[in-house]
Amino acid sequence: MVNTEGLPPAAAALVGCAVSTGYGAARNLGEVRRGDVVVVLGVGGIGVNAIQGSRVAGAARILAVDVNADKEIAARKFGASDFVLLPRGLDASAIASVSRLQPAHRSMS
Q1: How large a percentage of the chain has pLDDT more than 90?
Q2: Which residues, in sequence order, are CB contacts of 19 under 8 Å at separation 6+?
Q3: From CA 5, how far away is CA 35, in angstroms rounded?
């Protein structure tokens, strides 16, 4: 149990939702396994927890992708092995090319 005394309810709800959604996406929906290569698009609250879930699952390589260079610190802190900075305004085909960096692709969508 985590002591949430003094934590505003809105912040607690946001943290609780981001952790369970991101971590659960990696572990349950994505079924990340030891040795997998994972690409996480977006390093916000959900993304960092998808990174964390992938790390706990034993992913061999975790590529974090974001348009904000400041997100690299959080991505690496939560377990990303690589960080890809994408310029804003790229179309979907450019973003999809990042996923081709992994040898076997399993979509979580």
Answers
A1: 48
A2: 45, 49
A3: 39
Distance, in Å, from the CA atom of 2 to the CA atom of 66, rounded to the nearest integer, reads 30
- Alpha helix locations (H) across the chain? 9-24, 45-57, 72-78, 92-99
Please calculate the CA angle 21-26-27 and round it to the nearest 5 degrees.
100
**Separation between Cα atoms, residue 30 and residue 62, nearest integer Å:** 13
Instruction: Tell me: pLDDT of 109 over 70.
Output: no
**CA atoms of 95 and 39, how far apart (whole Å):** 11
Q: State which amino acid sits at residue 95.
A: I
| pLDDT for residue 105 | 46
- On average, the pLDDT of the chain sits at 83
Helix (H, G, I), strand (E, B) or coil at 95: helix
Structure token pair of residue 85: 């900075």
pTM of structure: 0.78
Query: What are the phi and psi torsion angles at 85 (to 5°)?
Result: -95, 115
